[in-house]
Design a protein that fits this description.
single chain; 45% helix; alpha/beta; three-stranded parallel beta sheet; Rossmann fold; 132 residues
């Protein structure tokens, strides 16, 4: 709890999903806990990121929504915070992150980097609105 007390007045982005479970409720437990914790220390929530929202097929244009896509968006409406972006379960992102060379830094114009650019832009916009 002492670490969380240092967050008082800071802004938070909560990441939903990321659990290898088929049921949306199980995947969002961590996001709900994060929201509750940030509210407890009065840290405003800028929004949610839906992690592993879908799996893009590596050899064609299609995708599969393995983990019940849309869970973070539904949670964001429930808690009154926007869904900022949806990041896919993507092999290139996993490989570059494991190598400590994030795809976003290595290939910012790539399809894999796009959701993170959207996330960054929406966070920037939310912070700008607060200062106006």
């Amino acid at each position: 709890m002492p670490i969380f007390l240092n967050l008082k007045g800071k802004k938070a982005v909560v990441i939903g999903g990321g659990r290898a479970a088929a049921r949306r409720v199980e995947r969002l437990i961590d996001a709900r806990r994060g929201i509750a914790m940030f509210r407890q220390v009065h840290a405003p929530i800028l929004g949610l990121l839906e992690n592993m929202s879908h799996f893009p097929y590596p050899h064609c244009i299609g995708r599969s929504e393995i983990f019940a896509h849309g869970g973070a968006r539904a949670e964001s409406r429930k808690f009154g915070a926007p869904c900022l972006s949806e990041s896919p379960l993507d092999m290139a992102n996993r490989e570059t992150s494991d190598a400590r060379l994030p795809n976003m830094a290595q290939r910012p114009d790539s399809q894999q980097a796009a959701p993170y650019l959207v996330l960054a832009e929406r966070i920037r916009d939310a912070l700008r609105q607060e200062t106006q």
